[in-house]
Amino acid sequence: MDILHSFFLRPSFVPLDFTGKSFAESAVNISEKTGNCPTQKSGLMLSEIESILDVPATLGRHNKRWHLAFATIYCSRALHSLLNKKKSSKPPVSTHSFVVLSVEPHLAFPNIDHTSLTAVVKEKNLDQLRKLGGVEGVADALKTDTKSGIHGAVEDVAERQETFGSNTYPRPPTKSFFYFVLEAFKDLTILILLACATLSLGFGIKEHGPKEGWYDGGSIFVAVFLVISVSAVSNFRQNRQFEKLSKVSNNIEVEVVRGGHRQKISIFDIVVGDVACLKIGDQVPADGLFLAGHSLQVDESSMTGESDHVEINSSQNPFLFSGTKVADGYAQMLVTSVGMNTTWGEMMSTISRDNNEQTPLQARLNKLTSSIGKVGLAVAFLVLLVLVVRYFTGNTEDENGNQEFNGSKTKADDIVNAMVRIIAAAVTIVVVAIPEGLPLAVTLTLAYSMKRMMADQAMVRKLSACETMGSATTICTDKTGTLTLNQMKVTKYWLGKEPVEDSSSIATNVLKLIQQGVALNTTGSIYRATSKSEFEFSGSPTEKALLSWAVLELDMDMERLKQNYTILHVEAFNSEKKRSGILMRKKADNKIHVHWKGAAEMILAMCSSYYDASGSMKELDDGERMTFEQIIQGMAASSLRCIAFAHKQIPEEEQEIREGRQKLKEDSLTLIGLVGIKDPCRPGVRKAVEDCQYAGVNVKMITGDNVFTARAIATECGILRPDQDINSEAVVEGEVFRKYTSEERMEKVDKICVMARSSPFDKLLMVQCLKQKGHVVAVTGDGTNDAPALKEADIGLSMGIQGTEVAKESSDIIILDDNFASVATVLRWGRCVYDNIQKFIQFQLTVNVAALVINFVAAVSAGEVPLTAVQLLWVNLIMDTLGALALATEQPTKELMEKPPVGRKEPLISNVMWRNLLAQALYQIAILLTLQFKGQSIFGVSEKVKDTLIFNTFVLCQVFNEFNARKLEKKNVFKGLHKNKLFLGIIGITIILQVVMVEFLKKFADTERLDWGQWGACIGIAAASWPIGWVVKCIPVSDKPFLSYLKW
């Protein structure tokens, strides 16, 4: 066989199969049949083997031998190839003695090595990029048209994802439920309780036997298990909710060009070869190369830590990196790497979002819990001391009435058992005193409100914002898109001093200039699939309005204009300059022109002449300038956004200088015309503004529009009263506000309702002034330059639709529908969170005070604790978990918006709460102490039944008091009760469990069964807390905080 093998491999010999084809032809034939599918390829290869082994009977003996030899070699090679395919992807090395034919599937992108391309971009290797043919060469290799992008068909996208990977990265493993169980076990109180449970269980079984001795210890274990379960489940669910929110917030919409059509897709759907469109504020979605654009500057601080912006251009630095932010300009980029092949992907896959942040309210509650815990510890220590002294002085008796301690006659076991019982009672007092339910209540309230706010178009990025919003005293809001619909339409056009009603009357020379100004000085685009289909406009709302007007009314052909002109330099629009300009050369005559567009009064200030209605150029003297200013004011007073267009042809002698400097001419321009764009107010925004004002929250409008437009919109929205004059202190321009001295700003900031022509710096300045005056400030923003103000504010609210990624990352809450009414909803939810926490604190402290006082007085006077460990733990469970769940899920009510905002330094426990909780606690203490000392004679029952009556009355008092806690100030505590099914369900469950504890778990709960009369008495005594609550709410309270010297 070896001889045959070497014989076949000689270069001079090419074996034939039985069909007369060469071995090479046969192998190629198989490759052609199988294409790129490995499975299909294997199947066909095996079928080919079968056909080779099938020796035709017509062959002679000599040929049969040759055929068999060939079949043996071919089969061994084919099978060997199949078995080793997975082990190595490297092609076998050729030698001079024979030729190896590759049967690898055809690669979709044979002209590009993706690993090398990824390295070129990561390392910013310009030389290597040039060897690849530059950006155009890379685009060709990736089968991308630099103008129209990839085809975008499903198969094309799928093939690219399979070849180059998807734009996703693996997240770190999520925390399991077991992790949160372990976290709950780290609580010191739980550990103390477990230690006590172990001792109690051991000594209980030793004293009473395994049948009955496990009750006390076992009940503590059950209570610990329940508390840990509720805590772990709550934290686990909250963690899952954060992860869901994280996925939503990471799912950014990116604009790409596919099949010549600009469209928005998810960042996760970006593929290698895509042409992505970038503008100010965007996050770069993947690694790639600069294709085309102007004035592009990128903030790479997230990658390099350097705060300086990096200029990106085609000649020196065409490299763009995923996760960086566009600081200025606009561009199109070619995507070369996605997902884990990018530096950002590698970095993000190792980072898990920290959602263990502690909110200010949680921090205050932990402090409160600690303070109450210290009081509980002191009471428990006193009880322990008193019980130990009473035991050793012979003042305690056992169940048979015999003295428990008789000096040396008492067994050591009995002393140990008594000590364990006393310690268990003291520790149980500590447990019932420490309100572990407070942090749980906050967690539940915040988690519930976050979920509901998401449904109300508000996505919470930082938990603390939920509660801080409830304290907001001032909201600084944008105009465009927040108070208005952001659905812009050109409704007026002025040429010279005359309004143009019919576009056909516009002079030809002016019409051409307008078309140039709109088509070339824009970041928007137009798409039309066929000549009969409708136009699709993309870009900002203002750009879309101008493009739509120019195409549909002025018959503008954007593509033809782009072909006739070369753009030399662009100054992109931003919120500080409020204008954009281009320097361009006409290809036909090589003449250079400048076009500007932007805020009307700013463009007007740059002009020295204008075109009149007939198309003639006229000088712009002071009188004419005044006329134009009045036209602009008139349009603004009609709530129109006024945009001006200006033009200048550069003289030949200046052309070379201008082209070399690439700096746009900003003076002696000619005004082409004025355009009025209507952006109607959102329906319902006036009602939302009035709701905020009624709730004691000032609404201030900060806008880049001029004073007249700002005043008109503010009046329409209800921010300004119609009688407030424009010259009053309520309306101010950003520049004027900036020039005030710091004392003047502090004096006037409260009176300002509208700030027009403001820059992002002015907005930041106003936020700082308001915070210095003690206001809790909420700010809305959508632009990149709004980021400092959003970060500075107590609550930053970014816009989900128009907001840039930079603005969203700087904010605490994202308003998903960009609607001011949603801001008012967030305010309502913020107040609801704070209100629900206060309700629960009032409920919890009532139980704490009552339980502590009753046990302390009874222990000191009678030497015994009326409520056993099991009973106290049951009460603790009701108020900690079920109570928190019931009161934390109350929904916002209209009453919340009738109260003034809660100040930043307001005490957590208000005077109203102290009034309510002390009244209920005193009533419970009085009733239960009466039962403790006179219960047996009043009801004529045994001591065991009396203790059960105390326990039952105490629990039922909490059930009835839970209704009182629903309303802190309103007397009608049943209003809206039918809407909260969860509250009613929890009350029902509590009552059923209490009946089970009293009637069926006698030994476990240390209770006796009660008759109907005794149940009626318990319910009657507990129900009295309703009328008491009603009467107490009639008592007025002072504004000065009760216990003001205590700072929680």
UniProtKB/TrEMBL annotation:
Catalytic reaction equation(s): Ca(2+)(in) + ATP + H2O = Ca(2+)(out) + ADP + phosphate + H(+)
One GO MF term: calmodulin binding
Gene Ontology CC, one term: plasma membrane
Entry annotated with the keyword Nucleotide-binding: yes
Keywords: Acetylation, ATP-binding, Calcium, Calcium transport, Calmodulin-binding, Ion transport, Magnesium, Membrane, Metal-binding, Nucleotide-binding, Translocase, Transmembrane, Transmembrane helix, Transport
Top-rank taxon: Eukaryota
Location in the cell: Membrane
Primary location group: membrane
Membrane topology: Multi-pass membrane protein
Function of the protein: This magnesium-dependent enzyme catalyzes the hydrolysis of ATP coupled with the translocation of calcium from the cytosol out of the cell or into organelles. Catalyzes the hydrolysis of ATP coupled with the transport of calcium.
Protein name, entry field: Calcium-transporting ATPase
Source species taxonomy: Eukaryota, Viridiplantae, Streptophyta, Embryophyta, Tracheophyta
